[in-house]
Write a structure and sequence with these properties.
7-stranded mixed β-sheet; 11 strands
């Protein structure tokens, strides 16, 4: 939600995520919503595609078929601002200049791209990261489909996905308990938030204020006291000023404070905006569903009531216009 995201123009992307399953897309939603230029490389080889039916993911009482779920998480990532690249990453390397930071990402079919940060979100086959650190530290060899496969060592990344390699994060499920898709998505979100915080720190923020919160509230909750910007300024100075590693009178402190407060105000929605978003969310979800299933699930009277005269006229007008355009 930040209005002044960190962007390093010398890179093609701020963040490249390798793997477009639940972990990768979840991380991408957080980084892209912050305004970080995020590309998700995915060849459709996510381990979730070996699942016959998704049953334990919250929000799907009867479960979800894998194809629909995969389409939904990619749609969510793209709506947040990610670019989903249907390509297989072959290697992630440091630039030729040893003094340079960032990474060069080489894939099978696309031109190499550069990124300030990379999130590894593939459960199997970490071959593309070889050479960035000690192989013994990064990987453990496991049997997968009767073949030896390099999986990330569960002890290699920190709890937030950070690794000893600056700019490299691991969002892959760590350990046997994390085979559930919902746990993978939660880990991806945690790593995405860590990347956002690190990007903010690069932009002059400090740790205690960089983590932030990406959520929205009802405008009605913004009472008279907190509707005044001066009160937010006073609160920020009291809460963060004393422990801040920068002078509270400095331009840097003021810039971070103003951006932080802007984010807070942007997080309050009017009733009209809440209704608009709810309607748009329902329409987007319906686009991914089988129309026959929608008709079967909805009460006939409700369905007929929803198809009012105005809707019928609009449909006929659109259909007639489409016919004219085709001539």
């Amino acid at each position: 939600m930040s209005t002044s995201p960190t962007t390093r123009t010398e890179y093609d992307h701020d963040v490249v995520i390798v793997g477009g399953g639940p972990a990768g897309c979840s991380a991408g939603v957080f980084t892209a919503r912050e305004g970080l230029d995020t590309a998700v490389f995915d060849r459709g080889r996510s381990s979730i595609q070996r699942c016959a039916h998704l049953e334990n993911y919250l929000g799907f009482p009867e479960g979800a078929d894998i194809e629909t779920f995969y389409d939904l998480i990619h749609d969510h990532a793209e709506t947040a601002g990610c670019t989903v690249v249907p390509d297989l990453v072959e290697s992630v390397d440091r630039p030729d200049d040893d003094a340079a930071d960032g990474f060069v990402i080489t894939s099978q079919e696309s031109e190499p791209v550069t990124a300030r940060r990379v999130i590894a979100a593939t459960r199997y086959d970490g071959e593309y990261l070889r050479g960035l650190d000690s192989n013994e530290a990064m990987f453990e060899t496991c049997d997968h489909d009767n073949e030896a496969d390099d999986r990330f060592d569960r002890d290699y990344p920190d709890a937030d996905g950070s690794t000893p390699v600056e700019g490299l994060y691991v969002a892959s499920p760590a350990g046997k308990p994390d085979k559930q898709a919902i746990l993978a998505a939660g880990r991806g979100a945690r790593v995405g938030k860590r990347v956002v915080a690190d990007a903010r720190i690069d932009d002059g923020w400090w740790e205690s204020v960089a983590a932030g919160v990406d959520w929205v509230r009802q405008q009605s909750e913004l009472d008279d006291e907190w509707a005044e910007r001066a009160n937010w300024v006073e609160w920020f100075d009291d809460f963060y000023g004393e422990a801040a590693p920068v002078d509270p009178d400095s331009d840097r402190f003021e810039r971070v404070r103003e951006t932080y407060i802007d984010d807070r105000f942007d997080g309050y929605l009017t009733d009209a905006e809440i209704d608009r978003r709810a309607e748009e969310a329902h329409e987007t979800l319906a686009d991914h569903l089988d129309p026959e299933a929608i008709v079967a699930a909805v009460d006939t009277d409700q369905l007929l009531a929803a198809i009012d005269d105005d809707a019928i006229r609009a449909y006929r007008d659109d259909d007639q216009q489409s016919g004219l355009d085709a001539q």
